[in-house]
Every structure is written in C-alpha cells, then in structure tokens.
Specification:
elongated; mainly alpha; 83% helix
C-alpha cells in the first residue's frame, strides 16, 4: 500500500515538474512549482520522513511559493520596440 502511494506521489511530482518547465506564464509556473514542492512533501511523509516532509511543505511550498509570487508581481514588463 505504501509503495503504491509513494509511486503515485512520485509520478504526480514528475508531471508537475514537467508542466512547470513547459508553461509560458510565470505566475502559473510558480503555482505549479509550489504544488510540486507540496507533492514532494507528501512523498517524504509517505516514505516515513515526517520532519523532512513538514519542512518541505512549509519552506518549499509555502515560503518559496509566496516569494516567487511577490517577486513576479513586483517586476515590470519591458517591451522591446
């Protein structure tokens, strides 16, 4: 049971990583990257590393995602004429 669940989380994280690399919008990429970090945190928890999973969820999905989104909203677009 645990092996099946960890395989599912691993495949979902792999799909999220590929989608984050392929998407063209920076905000969507930041959201998908945060979901990737959350899926990796769930994978750590399923594998038995609860403290590592908690830290990944807080830092990887939470703080880093918020910092990426704040950075995207504070940048200005420049168009080349």
């Amino acid at each position: 049971m645990s092996g099946d669940l960890s395989a599912i989380f691993f495949l979902l994280a792999l799909v999220a990583a590929i989608v984050a690399l392929q998407v063209r919008d920076l905000l969507a990429a930041a959201v998908v990257l945060s979901s990737f970090s959350f899926l990796v945190a769930l994978l750590y928890i399923v594998l038995g590393a609860v403290d590592v999973g908690f830290n990944e969820a807080v830092l990887g999905a939470g703080v880093t995602g918020v910092l990426f989104i704040v950075a995207i909203f504070n940048t200005k677009r420049r168009s080349r004429d």
